């Protein structure tokens, strides 16, 4: 069997995100799924055989994130605070994002009281989150080597407006954010933008915030905080030692176990990483992020039963914040000869993935439909894939197969 997608595309969504840990608290941010280098498989298609052929998906599933506008010669500062509508306490894990023309750019995180202050476009260290998701080291997210956001570029002498068509929002797992328009804000204006309210989403049983964190003794917290600081400087070996210290002092420290797994995964210590993720779940079985990472590891090793189990648990706990698990679920079901379940997960992913971070779901769905003989809808999803990933390494093969499909279709079914 040959396929329309590279099955390892999003199995690699987390790897590039291992480059650095998030700040200040790493893994308690939403998933998305991972973020995050994807290996590419290449094999030749079968010309003229509609519905057959192996098509490589783009190495980076996330389109480049360039805001409309760009740099400005005068720095712009913004400040404000974030509150939860359900009375949840503020914490330093809330992302502050500038969203320009629909593309999010992480600017900073809040402090322990929910306040934030930053210079626009100057974040060069803290965005290892995914997207949309995102969380610590290995969560699915954008490929940081491909992103073209303003982060870390500094200011140029060319005068553009980095706030053109932009809004400011908070991002936190299980919550929907108010948005504040920045379009009329200028560099000399008062930096205060006011209060952003986060509204609790329904249907989310699990959390990307471990409830055990608040119970950690001070020494364990210090070890964890030190690990965070070292990771931000790229000193991962030292960070690993302090994470081990944190989990030794406080074995229920789920977030520290998770981040230890992230560091170990970055260092290709896969067996150790798996044990750390399992320890995170043992410490807090409603902490969602380690389930998603275990699904990733299982899928990467083609352990489809395990990938299916972990992705199901992720989706059950949090059906909103981890689109990556819908992909692992769809892929696992497909390889386990359960096309109906694979199709269901792929369609759910396409509904959830409004930012189109997973174009390969279109090609998987096309494959399933072709195998069922539904060529018209399959062609629609192939065209959707090409629209989302026109420069993908397999785009030429997709176009050729689509052309073959269209040539064999009745005239009434030809695209207008």
CATH arch. level architecture of the largest domain: Alpha Horseshoe
Q: What fold name goes in the CATH topology slot of the largest domain?
A: Serine Threonine Protein Phosphatase 5, Tetratricopeptide repeat
- Within CATH, the superfamily of the largest domain carries the name Tetratricopeptide repeat domain
Major beta sheet, specifics?
A: 4 strands, mixed
CATH class of the largest domain: Mainly Alpha
Number of helices: 11
* Beta fraction: 5-15%
- SS content category: alpha+beta
Spans where pLDDT lies below 50 across 5 or more residues: 4-72, 125-159
For the termini, the CA-CA separation is: 32 Å
Describe this structure as you would to a colleague.
With 416 residues, the protein is an alpha+beta fold. It folds into two domains: 10-63 and 209-413, Tetratricopeptide repeat domain (Serine Threonine Protein Phosphatase 5, Tetratricopeptide repeat, Alpha Horseshoe), CATH 1.25.40.10; 77-200, Sandwich (Immunoglobulin-like), CATH 2.60.40.1120. Helix content is 36%, strand content 11%. The protein contains eleven helices and eight strands. It has helices spanning 218-232, 236-249, 254-266, 270-283, 289-300, 304-317, 323-335, 339-352, 360-371, 375-388, 395-408; strands at 77-84, 95-100, 103-109, 115-119, 166-171, 175-177, 179-181, 192-200. Strands 4-1-8-6 form a four-stranded mixed β-sheet, with no helix packed on it. It has a four-stranded antiparallel β-sheet with strand order 3-2-5-7, with no helix packed on it. A hairpin with a 2-residue loop joins strand 2 (95-100) and strand 3 (103-109). Helix 6 runs antiparallel to helix 7, helix 7 runs antiparallel to helix 8 and helix 10 runs antiparallel to helix 11. The protein is globular and about 70 Å long. It starts with 76 loop residues before the first strand and ends in an 8-residue tail after the last helix. The model is unreliable at 4-72 and 125-159 (pLDDT under 50).
């Amino acid at each position: 069997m040959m396929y329309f997608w590279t099955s390892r595309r999003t199995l690699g969504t987390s790897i590039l995100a291992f480059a650095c840990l998030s700040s200040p608290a790493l893994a308690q941010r939403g998933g998305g799924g991972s973020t995050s280098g994807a290996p590419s498989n290449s094999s030749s298609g079968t010309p003229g055989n509609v519905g057959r052929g192996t098509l490589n998906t783009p190495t980076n599933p996330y389109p480049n994130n360039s805001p409309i506008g760009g740099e400005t010669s005068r720095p712009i500062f913004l400040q404000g605070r974030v509150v939860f509508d359900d009375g949840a306490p503020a914490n330093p894990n809330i992302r502050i994002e500038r969203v320009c023309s629909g593309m999010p750019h992480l600017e900073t995180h809040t402090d322990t009281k929910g306040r934030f202050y930053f210079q626009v476009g100057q974040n060069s260290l803290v965005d290892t989150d995914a997207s949309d998701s995102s969380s610590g080291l290995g969560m699915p997210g954008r490929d940081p080597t491909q992103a073209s956001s303003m982060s870390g570029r500094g200011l140029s002498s060319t005068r553009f407006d980095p706030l053109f068509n932009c809004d400011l929002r908070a991002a936190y797992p299980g919550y929907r954010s108010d948005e504040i328009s920045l379009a009329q804000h200028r560099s000399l204006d008062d930096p205060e933008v006011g209060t952003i309210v986060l509204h609790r989403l329904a249907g989310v049983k699990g959390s990307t915030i471990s409830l055990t964190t608040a119970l950690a003794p001070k020494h364990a917290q210090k070890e964890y905080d030190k690990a965070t600081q070292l990771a931000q400087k790229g000193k991962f070996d030292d960070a690993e030692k302090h994470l081990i210290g944190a989990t030794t002092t406080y074995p229920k420290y789920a977030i520290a176990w998770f981040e230890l797994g992230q560091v170990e995964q970055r260092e290709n210590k896969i067996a150790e990483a798996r044990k750390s993720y399992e320890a995170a779940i043992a410490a807090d079985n409603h902490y969602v992020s380690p389930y998603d990472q275990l699904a990733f590891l299982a899928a990467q090793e083609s352990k489809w039963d395990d990938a299916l189990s972990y992705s199901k648990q992720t989706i059950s706990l949090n059906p909103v914040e981890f689109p990556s698990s819908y992909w692992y679920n769809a892929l696992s079901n497909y390889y386990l000869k359960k096309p109906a379940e694979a199709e269901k997960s792929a369609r759910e992913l396409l509904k959830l993935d409004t930012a189109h971070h997973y174009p390969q779901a279109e090609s998987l769905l096309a494959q399933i439909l072709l195998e069922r003989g539904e060529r018209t809808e399959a062609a629609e999803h192939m065209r959707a894939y090409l629209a989302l990933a026109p420069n993908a390494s397999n785009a030429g093969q997709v176009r050729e197969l689509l052309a073959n499909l269209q040539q064999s279709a009745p005239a009434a079914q030809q695209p207008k």
